Amino acid sequence: MSITRSLKQLLMACLLTLPALVHAQASDEQAQSLLKQLADASYAEKGRIINDIAGSGDERARQWLEAFADGKLARVEEDTDVAPADTFVIVLENRGRDWTVADALTGDEIGEISRRNLDSIRINNALRGELDGILSVIDLKVDDPEQRLAAARGLRGSVDDAMVENLSELMAEEENNSVKAALEEAIAIYRVEELGDVDAVETLSGSLNSQARAALNAASRSDDAALAKAAKEAMVSIEQKLKMNRAAETLYFGLSLGSVLVLAAIGLAITFGVMGVINMAHGELIMLGAYTTWGMQQLLPGQPGLALILSIPAGFLVAALAGIAIERSVIQFLKGRPLETLLATFGISLILQQLVRTVISPLNRTVITPEWMSGSFMVNEGLFLTLNRLYIIGFSLVVFAGLMLIMRKTRLGLEVRAVTQNRAMARSMGIKATRVDIMTFALGSGVAGLAGVALSQITNVGPNLGQNYIIDSFMVVVFGGVGNLWGTLVAGLSLGTINQLLEPWAGAVLAKILVLVFIILFIQKRPRGLFPQKGRAAEG
Amino acid sequence: MSTTNTSYSQSWLTRPFTERSTQIFLGVLFAAMAVVTFLHVAMPQDSALYVSSYTVTLLGKYLCYALLAVAVDLVWGYLGILSLGHGAFFALGGYAMGMYLMRQIGDRGVYGDPVLPDFMVFLNWESLPWYWHGFDMAWFAFVMVLLAPGILALVFGFLAFRSRVTGVYLSIITQALTFALMLAFFRNEMGFGGNNGLTDFKDILGFDLRTDATRLGLFLATGVALAIGYVICRAIVGSKLGRVSVACRDAEARTRFIGYRVERVQLFVFVVSAMLAGVAGSLYVPQVGIINPSEFSPLFSIEIVVWVALGGRATLYGAVIGALIVNYAKTVFTGVMPDAWLFALGALFVLVTVFLPKGIAGLLPGFRKKQQDDDPKTTGTEREATA
């Protein structure tokens, strides 16, 4: 135990009265006595005793108080098999007749005791309110700075007269800057709200906490002119920060939507750009990838994370095989007739949709998001980036880089580019054009499957999944310039961002319409997209 | 079968009537209309040959679709433009008619408001939006049936053809256009009834829409409209303009090089086709009694294309045959086993494109010879394959 920590506890103990218990670690005897007092005391006295317990510096104090707050701290009334009378226990499971309990002093689970032999220590709402503050103060003493930070943040807006002095002392002692700042803010909120302290307003200026804003808002309407003025100024600086946050958030949403579009479109960019094949069933290949994820999770119940990771290769394979089947059965007969390919693949998309409806279900399926993908990453207190979208942005960049490598560095990529530029010439050089077609289509379809795996994490998995993305995907490809992977990346990200920028003032539907109109007008200026193909390949 | 080599000294409008295929088509169409009318009016209701008014309306609906298919065949078959946006023109014509019918309801709506349609009362609208004015007059509405799709096609076509967006790109952009319109019309704020569209029509030009006589009248009017539309299309494709548009289809760059203003030809044919689609929509609405944004769905637009593909591109009568067959099949399928319909439609798309590139018309006698100078496949395929 470090010296500073001992000192801190020493200090806390002093602060929270009862000098008799000034020890680094209270003994079991003292603990037992404190719990006994708590159990026997009247409601009025209990308030004092919980302060004693908190001040005892006992590491188990938090556990006791939490259990007490939940009504799960109990005393054994008479001797039983597992514990003698007057043992204090924490109820772990309070269903049925026999309750599972743990010894409050040792913390070990000791077995089941009939609920009739247990006497729960009573609590009322006033005490519960008091406990919240006390528990936060206890948390402020733990070693882990993260936990201290969370406790300090939780205190904002709930500081009262009784706590403020202790907190000020704790703040002075605190070494971690963010914890210190949070404590300072908590105290400042109290000072502004309760005391109308103009100096404290300064501290809150720039804070993104909603409690701080509420306090400033109230203060700006105060009769005290100086206070109102200071509060208003502080609000302006907060407003500015919020605006920046909103801009960053819009950008983030835009990029995440854009990366979804890139994922959905990039497989299409390969088949459309390289082979000149309009694959209207691309959306359904995405859908197959999403259903593969769902299927994996059915196969591996309880392990959504593992299932998701396995879905990445599985989704690629399923969609790639489906793609090969489509290429062999239909597209190879329609070579050089893009409009017919469009119709035939549209037919395939209808069949696949109906197949899923008939075989699986017309209803949406839920895909579980693994724990490590849910939650969010906090940039500052007003800006949280949801993790699943962060993962998708990363995933689409990885897929993009992978495709780039395949097209640039592998023999397949070389052959694909050769066949694209001059099929006859490539064949006369000994490249098997048919094999290249199959591989290209499999690659493009496989990437659609990957998109489906990613999409399953942010949207419903249902028969219409592909429909929702196919038109957007085509727009991205047309906007970016056919056959250009960089174009697809830039187009996808910018369309996503434009959509998000328009949404606040136009609404979701109108934003989408405006984006479509924008693309139609854009095509006027650059009919071949952002990055048109140059040279002989462009003549088609 | 030298129909296409007919002397150009004839007036462009009278020439179609000298063509054998047009004569047969009009003969069959009018004979069918006469038979249906006779069986509906003269037969006793319990006779096996009696054609119920439900069937008459259903046939009228098919004829609307047939006219729509003819319009699509005009641009796809003879101009090489695969428009996936004709559902939009059809729906716009339908909405123009729907607005007229809506205003004819008067105070007989659920809310009894003499001016505002029910959905506007429901949404607490104060007054009629400006674009609804004039739709109480039949002539204005009928003009709008032509103008609404016509102007959209004009603006869109002008933008697209000027920047030489053709082929697959144009298909995708037209699909996006339809999709955008669908999203727009789903909005309640648009003032077109949102999700529910326009419905609860009472009468047209003073005739009660629910009576058998009106239904028969609408059916006959649709038949006449189909005949007129067919003759107009036939006249266009038989004229010099039609020859140029076929040239655009087969070798756009060469046609432009020779000195033709390709984009003007494309624009003209596209606008005419859009207007025909609008007329089809306007006749469709009073017969089915509703128009809603689902007509804008990309699926519907692309379904029209498969009617034409099944019937046979660049024949016009093939489009009619395709529309009738597919829609009859749809009525049967969706009644007997609804789940199977999408399978059947999907299979139709695949089978027709792979195994029946010339459609049903390609199976008819006398088709091969005519195709020698009018075949979208031989010339078109060569061009695309070398591209």
UniProtKB/TrEMBL annotation, chain A:
It is found in: Cell inner membrane. Residues 1-24 form the signal peptide. This is Urea ABC transporter permease subunit UrtB. It is a multi-pass membrane protein. One of its GO terms (cellular component) is plasma membrane. CDD domains: TM_PBP1_LivH_like (cd06582). Belongs to the binding-protein-dependent transport system permease family. LivHM subfamily. GO terms for biological process: amino acid transport. Keywords: Amino-acid transport, Cell membrane, Membrane, Signal, Transmembrane, Transmembrane helix, Transport. Coiled coil: none annotated. One of its GO terms (molecular function) is transmembrane transporter activity. The chain crosses the membrane at residues 251-278, 306-326, 338-356, 390-407, 438-458, 470-493, 505-523.
UniProtKB/TrEMBL annotation, chain B:
It comes from the Bacteria. Pfam families: BPD_transp_2. It is a multi-pass membrane protein. Keywords: Cell membrane, Membrane, Transmembrane, Transmembrane helix. One of its GO terms (cellular component) is plasma membrane. It is found in: Cell inner membrane. CDD domains: TM_PBP1_LivM_like. The chain crosses the membrane at residues 24-42, 49-72, 78-102, 138-161, 168-186, 216-237, 265-284, 304-328, 340-360. One of its GO terms (molecular function) is branched-chain amino acid transmembrane transporter activity. PANTHER family: HIGH-AFFINITY BRANCHED-CHAIN AMINO ACID TRANSPORT SYSTEM PERMEASE (PTHR30482), SLR1201 PROTEIN (PTHR30482:SF4). This is Urea ABC transporter permease subunit UrtC. It comes from Marinobacter nanhaiticus D15-8W. The lineage of its organism: Bacteria, Pseudomonadati, Pseudomonadota, Gammaproteobacteria, Pseudomonadales. The gene is urtC.
